[in-house]
Request: fold
Amino acid sequence: MTAKLTNAQIAWRAAQDIPDGAYVNLGIGFPEMVAKFKPDGREVIYHTENGILDFGEAPPAGEEDWDLINAGKKAVTLNPGASFFHHADSFSMVRGGHLDVAILGAYEVAENGDLANWSTGPGSVPAVGGAMDLVHGAKNVVVITDHVTKKGEPKLVKACSLPLTGVGCVTKVYSSLAVIDIVDRHFVLREKLPGMSLEELQAVTGGKLVVDGNVGDLIVPEL
Amino acid sequence: MDKIYPSIEDALSGIKDGMVVMIGGFGGAGAPIELIHALVESYKKTGSPGRLTVVNNNAGNGAVGIAAMIYAGMVAKMVCSFPRSSDPRAFTEKYLAGQIELELVPQGTLAERIRAGGAGIPAFYTPTSFGTQLAEGKPVEEFEGRKYVQERWLKADVAIIKAELADRKGNLTYNKAARNFAPLMAMAARTTIVQASRIVEPGEIDPEHVVTPGIFIDRIVEVPNPQQEEALLREGAK
Reply:
């Protein structure tokens, strides 16, 4: 079995593709890590659903202002040029198609772009937050995820079995093994770990991997 | 015109059993803690107002704010997007025991439903939730080749919100991201009650900087140095 990327390496890879000047929403948890790996020289403006554009890093411990938080309810700071707005304006930025990139986690992504990332089914308290809005707003809806579950089951599947967050919404997946575009309801393989054959990758992928042109090597730094 | 009330109790008068109450705040930012706790005290003393439907993004954290309302037993239903928090026991226990109802609404849809309620728009279409469990039973229409779900306005009997500055005419500013749902809820409620950290003279808030115009505001009470829910929780409030 070939090694796989760490979460930090997946986040690093995703960060390399965020263009200069992009307006970006990072989902709560793992996706927040992408901000750490923004390439130097690019200016990226981060949006948070609770009503801030252009927030910065977390303040030092003890200097938090709990009226200045992100959607994950973590304390943040402001960059020069930041702004505050109410929730309807915030989600107008989302639903109105004004965000360039939204980066989310996933339980399952289907080859047609369906995403399941909000509910593991009955038995717990359901909570959706802004996930269902975000998947319909950004021009690019990007998923970063382990390629398989902790039990080794594929997370990139033919059809989602868990409750959907959105239909046909995901445009790109950065996994621990590969970079995949979703084009015309297919997983189109763009990069894979160099030590891994297409057959090995297909064996841990639920949907069919389509090769359309060159498949690059997925190479990331030690992190 | 003077919308200023002398005390929290006066400002909250008339909130009755079974009402729909919108409460500002996202997590701890913007939660009108003093107004909420006064409602809890009233319920503990008099048994009213009970059986409330509470609209907020969340469903309480720890044992303060909305969680205190839920623990006290005065909330029959929550309308929210994310009934989880670092300590969601108040809601979770009652929900799993079938003692509190939940209407789960995607966050942007929740904001827009409240805005629509305040703007006199009974329904609207959004792409959010199309094809998911949360769209079941709702009308779907296609516009420009894409499917959209019909959502209805959300209105309230009362909104209670927290502002930074207020003048007697009801013009408001907020503190940073504590703004969140407050300007929307102020529009969507028949009576909007504000706790403001400082009351200033009309004109002291530059008209260019007024965030919520006074027309949406009914009652104001000054609460200097208000408690902040997240800060309270981190201090270990019980």
Observations:
- Residues 7-16 of chain A form the longest helix (10 residues).
- The mean pLDDT of chain A is 96.
- Chain A touches chain B through 37 residues (CB under 8 Å).
